[in-house]
Amino acid sequence: MTLRKNFIIGLMLFALFLGAGNIIFPPALGQMAGDNLVIAMLGFLITGVGLPLVAVLAIANSNTGESGGLQSIASRVHPAFGVIFTMIIYMAIGPFFGIPRTATVSYEIGIVPFLTKEVAQSNWPLLVFTIVFFTITVVLALNPAKLVDRIGKILTPILFVIIGALVIKSLITPMGNIQEAHGDYASQPFFRSFVEGYLTMDVIAALVFGIIIINALKVEGITKKEPAFKATIIAGIIAAIGLTLVYVSLGYIGATSVEAIGLQDNGGAILALASKFLYGGAGSTILALTIIFACLTTSIGLVSACAQFFEETFPQLPYKVYVFLFAGFSTIIGNFGLTQLIKISIPVLMMVYPLAIVLMLMSFIDKSFGR
Q: Which among 187, 177, 232, 241 is positioned nearest to 206, based on CA atoms?
């Protein structure tokens, strides 16, 4: 496989990781960390980027060319455990939480600010938006062989340009000076941000998206472990570099924004006000496009990953049927039951997350135990 193709796969992986939550948190960290931004960002990058990169390496290590991914890693405990554990994670981070949330977050941050109060309080705008959002998701996820080109070549560059416009403007005309740190970020900035990076749960995302990487390599004709291992590592490093640049840049925006917009409760508010400060009325449009494109790429990745896993596990239904099922289910949940499902899914994810990390780390040393 050419280096260019490997680079595009890395860009795809970067875009899959960069959901709305990943964009919103760094500005909040920047505001709170203030003059401790460097040490705080270091802690966040270790767990928010470093651990997912290790997870990608675990995927590469588990990939035999014919099989690999989370189920392959978990099956080393027991084949039945591998199926059940993997299914729980895919359902929890997929249709029960992650997929519908990509649409609702896009709507709340990207669409609601442009609606009148009366329209925003009604139900039909969200319904219309989720139908359109998941229709686009289905169209782009329907052919997994084209995921790399559609996300890596098209959506990711668009996302880079939009985020870049915000970051470059903030560097050319800073909103203010970096202020003092607040709260825990004043006394223990490294450990506070270290924990926050852990709580992004991007390790699970890396393990879930592993199936997309493996199948993308198969499309390129890479079916042997050594070249697959090398290609996956390169893609992971490219994604990690991209995430680091975005996180540091957004953290800087947050750190320099206090003088202009004051302390805000969350990163979404920071980005909204910072975008407006930097670009005026056009700032809201820039932020809306950033969030929608970030959520769309994550939605496509999650739907495709879930569909690929279930097709391999339960081949009675083809991939395309699973794509429609997950997108349709997520449309319904996004409109009527997301809050209730989040109450169930988050505790489940928090429970299995440490186990996923242990399995990930054990995948590197299992041969020491004769496995």
A: 232
